[in-house]
Amino acid sequence: MAALVASTRELFTEGVRAVLETWPVLQIAVDNGFGGVYSQQKADWMVDAVQQYFHDNSDLQQYEVEDFLSELMNNEFDTMVDDGSLPEVALQVCQMFKQCQQGKVEEVKGQISQLARKKSAGRVKATAVKSPAEEEEDESDEDDTEAMECDGAAGVSPNHAPPRPANPPAPPPDEADDGWTVVRKKK
User: Fold this and answer.
1) Which of 89, 95, 128, 158 would you call most buried, defined as having the most Cβ atoms within 10 angstroms of its Cβ?
2) How many angstroms separate the CA atoms of 116 and 16, rounded?
3) In a domain, 12, yes or no
4) pLDDT for 36-48, tens place per residue?
5) Confidence of residue 140 (pLDDT cuts 50, 70, 90)
6) Can you tell me the distance from the alpha carbon of 96 to that of 9, in angstroms, rounded to the nearest whole number?
């Protein structure tokens, strides 16, 4: 791919910025500080890195741009992109680059303004996903709650537990003639 003239190169940089700023994966990574304290600066740098990647390499294919974006997200934000958005983002950037090369400035400006409207419509919010272990823990908490509710329904107030004896009776010692000591759990 031939080098872009200065004005179309600036337009392409603006287009890359618009695409990346509306990419939910990058938004989430920046908003949640996946890149550390400088997450926003890394996102800004990423725009320049992508633009420079196109400038330095000729005849880039979509899969090469996908690999480059994936590597940037992994290295800078410790994020593996597996939501299926990577091919779409790479395709948008590749198409913008080709349009800039062909001098289709108005089309690129239209896409940029469309992406700006999308960005102003609202940012994506991240929600925590529970691991299977956490889900099991929540389920066991629910089971405990249900058991407590059953106890409460049986006439025992949840705020007042039945009185315990001062000294519980000691379990009878097991006669172990074989030399083993039986250890029992306290109640």
Assistant:
1) 89
2) 12
3) yes
4) 999 999 999 999 9
5) low
6) 11
Buried b (16+ CB within 10 A) or exposed e, 59-91: ebebeebbebbbebbeebbebebeeeebeebbe
Backbone dihedral angles phi then psi of residue 69, each to the nearest 5 degrees: -65, -40
The number of folded domains in the chain is 1
Distances (CA, A) of 168 to 21, 115, 156, 175: 67, 72, 21, 21
Alpha helices in 102-183 (DSSP H): 105-121, 132-153
* 151: in domain: no
Task: Kindly state whether residue 161 falls inside one of the protein's structural domains.
Answer: no
Share the mean pLDDT of the chain.
Answer: 78
The per-residue DSSP string of 17-66 comes to HHHHHT-HHHHHHHHTTTTGGGHHHHHHHHHHHHHHHHHHSSS--HHHHH
Question: Are 4 and 12 contacting, i.e. CB atoms less than 8 angstroms apart?
Answer: yes
* Residue 174, both tokens: 């097991």
